[in-house]
Amino acid sequence: MNIRGAGLLMALALLGGCGRIIPETGGPVVGPRPLPQPTPPATAALIGVHPGPPAPGLGFDADNARAALASFIASCPRLTRRADGSGLTRPADWAPACAAAGTWPAADAARFFSSYFETARVGDGSSFITGYYEPEIAGVRTRQPGFDVPVYAAPPDLVRANPGDAAPLPDGRMPLGRYDETGRFVPYWDRAAIEDGALAGKGLEIAWAADAAELFFLQVQGSGRLRAPDGSVVRLGYAAVNGFDYTGLGTVMKAQGLIGTGPGQYPGSMQGILRYIHEHPDEGRALMRQNRSYVFFREITGEGPVGALGVPVKGRTTLAADPSFVPLGAPVFLSTDRAEVGGLWVAQDTGGAIKGANRFDSFWGAGAEARRIAGGMSARGSALILLPKGTLAHLDAQRATTR
Fold first, then answer.
1. CA distance linking residue 258 with residue 222, whole number of Å
2. Contact residues for 193 (Cβ-Cβ < 8 A; gap 6+)
3. Which residues are paired to 237 by β-bridges?
């Protein structure tokens, strides 16, 4: 993945099986009925994009723009080559801005964004932003007393179904799962089965953590660090997910009346949920198992962590977004009810829970402060996507020719 995993958690449920087709009129059917065509997945281009205010009028902060420019430059090699799943841009559209960015003075970064971009609202532009960070938890490479929670690499039998062996997902991809001993494609082991030992002894353990709940939240984040008692660090990156939908523990706890400010209730933040799990070990274990999704890791070296775009993500600059609605690598300008999350960001990551137009996850880096901000981040406001100048005119012309 991405750091979020959530790639982290990017699987969709299998579609239901086909039933018998019954003629609507009750009369005879002559010849085979055509199969229903799948509904095209929603994209920014399909739901509608509208011009936003002129970029120069947004009043970019100099320091914020400087950081965004550095992340945009890092994104350019991918932006100018990869297909844009949002339907808004073509790789060549980014070439002028990317060519200029490489030599643009960092001290004048605000003028760069004013000069090369126009703004657009996807849908009504109303946004919801949460936060994520790179967690650091206690862990070691080799199992030892006090470090008994396995950290698994991606298993080789986790595969996508061959065409015809399962129903495709709404986006056209085949689902993730495994082939059992009879050769039948089945869902992969879920969290409960894996925790009960479905993968034990297969040589997939790349490290061992001290706390199952802390590892759970590291999986939610999609990457992180293990720090051993001797101070050595193993950096983990997202490798794969088992194919089940992500279930948010806060949603489950709220439905059970455990979230709130009353007696016996807990804050809906990550910190509050973690405290509940530690104070109620048996109930907490059952709660975590309601999220059947399970993330596998790989050890990473060098600069990181790396997001879904394939470039290192940066604290207070990188956003996770749904690539069906935002071109990965595009700048995004946020105006929200939380001042710390406003301004310029760059969409460089994705996440299993980050779905839909104007839904974002803001990355805050590593350390205690990043954990505090990300764990309590819940902001609402508006989002503007910064697109290369001329993009909206191109989209209008494209729509006109398809009418």
1. 26
2. none
3. 298
Tell me which residue has tokens 């910064």: 386
Residue type, 226: L
For residue 63, the model assigns a pLDDT of: 97
- The answer on pLDDT for 26 being more than 70 is no
Look up tokens 């009346």; give the residue.
257
Q: How confident is the model at residue 366 (pLDDT cuts 50, 70, 90)?
A: confident
Q: Are strands 359-366 and 318-320 parallel, antiparallel or unpaired?
A: antiparallel
Average pLDDT (242-261) is 94
Distance CA 126, CA 359 (A): 9
- Beta strands per DSSP E along 61-141: 117-122, 126-134, 136-140
What are the beta bridge partners of residue 121?
A: 50
> Which amino acid type is present at position 294?
Y
Dist. CA 363–CA 377, nearest whole Å: 10
Range list of β-strands (E), 153-244: 159-160, 176-179, 185-186, 205-209, 224-227, 233-241
> In 3-state terms, what secondary structure has residue 166?
coil
Q: What are phi and psi of 139, to 5 degrees?
A: -170, 160
CA atoms of 356 and 129, how far apart (whole Å):
12
Please name which of 165, 161, 83 lies closest in space to residue 329, comparing C-alpha atoms: 83
Classify residue 180 by its DSSP letter: -
Closest CA to 221 of 376, 377, 6: 6
How many CA atoms are closer than 13 Å to the CA of 263, on its beta-carbon side?
Answer: 0
Query: What does the radius of gyration of the chain's CA atoms come to, in whole angstroms?
Result: 23
Q: Which two tokens stand for residue 45?
A: 């281009």
In this structure, the dihedral spanned by the alpha carbons of residues 174, 176, 178 and 182, taken in order and rounded to 10 degrees, is -30
* Tens of pLDDT, residues 120-132: 999 999 999 999 9
Q: Which residues pair with 107 in a beta bridge?
A: none
Contact 261, 200 (CB under 8 A): no
